[in-house]
Design brief:
alpha/beta, 3-stranded antiparallel β-sheet, 7-stranded mixed β-sheet, 12 strands, Aspartate Aminotransferase, domain 1, 42% helix, Aspartate Aminotransferase, domain 2
Length: 398
């Protein structure tokens, strides 16, 4: 006698299948150029790979310490200091995680109790709301609006809306700068407002800075929220190896926080994965110490790819929004009249041969994002040019 499969836990039912898995599978099925999921189609630096192989050959094959191998925590501390930030203690302040995704979950679950509220800017990386759900917390959205006549150069949020989002139940705010999916770099003024509200309401900031090295406009530099006055003691900063060094599959991330907040992250991390891959951590340490030239090369490639893609999409009739960071570009497709963002992305993948992400899944507010589409430009130049050739062939004839 057959028995029905046990139902998915209620906390996960609203999320369904990850949009990244869905669109990548669709791209594979239709032989589309995959500009949906944000992973490069080339390898990271040799120094990382060779150091990981050397670690394997030297027998670094058992569990790493729960907090991460010492050489990696020390390399993270040096990288933090090279960016002009205050000295941190590798032992007391740094926790190595299985990618930044695990760090997000550990920070949220280690900090929040059921019923607590966490403010999240929408559109957002979908782990934020899933992590809040796993913690039993309530996600409160604040919308990043598309550029308009009053704000032509950036996605922007309404100050009054942000102030109103703070309530007596607010325990945390998620800040992602540089921002996925919009390519926005939060300004100092915006971060100072967030900092002031966190201090006024005794709220902890969880600052996702995985794209910290991928900024393209010198006039809009990345600023770590934890470096603002009064914010070190109330900020958990998250980052990772994967975006900066094209090693997304290595899943090496980390959190940086004062001891009280580090204890929150570690309380959850020790029971989620305990520790990540030991040899990969050794490879990560090597490339963090010697990878500045690679980062500069990567920034030049991605800035060029962005410009090529922006010009193509504009010719095809989309409204393209500025992208000053990350490797994502947002555009408004509504002028083409091909339905919602999901309908448009299915048409792109199945008919045009280019996969993208429908960003309405990154909003909590119903109806938002259906006019938008997100493209990833973290590819080889020849890949981008083939995608652009397909876009022009498939969209200009409409």
């Amino acid at each position: 006698m057959s028995h029905p499969a046990p139902p998915v836990a209620q906390r996960f039912r609203s999320f369904g299948k990850s949009i990244f898995a869905e669109m990548t599978a669709m791209a594979t099925a239709h032989n589309a150029v995959n500009l949906s999921q944000g992973f490069p189609d080339f390898d990271g630096p040799d120094i990382a790979r060779l150091a990981a192989i050397d670690a394997i050959n030297k027998g670094h094959s058992q569990y790493a310490p729960m907090t991460g191998v010492p050489v990696l925590r020390q390399a993270i501390a040096r990288a933090w200091a090279r960016a002009g930030r205050p000295t941190i203690d590798p032992d007391a302040h740094i926790t190595v995680t299985a990618g930044c995704s695990e760090a997000i979950g550990a920070a949220l679950m280690g900090l929040l109790d059921p019923g607590d509220e966490v403010i999240i800017f929408e559109p957002y990386f979908d782990f934020y709301t899933a992590g809040a759900a796993m913690a039993g917390a309530v996600a409160k959205p604040v919308t990043l609006h598309s550029p308009d006549a009053a704000h032509p150069h950036d996605f922007w949020f309404d100050e009054a809306a942000l102030r109103a989002a703070f309530t007596p139940r607010t325990r945390a705010i998620m800040v992602n700068t540089p921002h996925n999916p919009t390519g926005k770099v939060y300004s100092r003024a915006e971060l100072e407002l967030i900092a002031a509200l966190c201090q006024q309401h005794n709220v902890t900031a969880i600052s996702d800075e995985v794209y910290e090295q991928l900024t393209f406009n010198p006039a809009k530099p990345h600023i770590s929220l934890a470096t603002l006055p009064g914010m070190w003691e109330r900020t958990i900063t998250l980052s990772s190896l994967g975006k900066t060094f094209s090693l997304t599959g290595w899943k090496v991330g980390w959190s940086i926080a004062p001891p009280a907040l580090t204890a929150c992250v570690r309380a959850a991390h020790q029971f989620m994965v305990f520790s990540g891959s030991t040899p990969m951590q050794h490879g990560a340490a090597a490339v963090l110490d010697a990878g500045d030239a690679y980062c500069e090369t990567l920034r030049r490639l991605f800035a060029s790819n962005r410009d090529i893609l922006s010009a193509t999409l504009t010719r095809c009739g989309l409204t393209v929004y500025p992208s000053d960071s990350t490797y994502f570009l947002m555009a408004d497709h509504s002028a083409l009249g091909i339905g919602t963002d999901r309908a448009f992305c299915e048409h792109l993948t199945k008919v045009v041969g280019v996969a993208a992400i429908p960003p309405s899944v990154f909003y909590l507010t119903p109806g938002l994002g259906t006019n938008l589409v997100r493209f990833a430009f973290c590819k080889r130049e020849e890949t981008m040019r083939e995608a652009c050739r397909r876009l022009e062939a498939g969209l200009l004839k409409n």
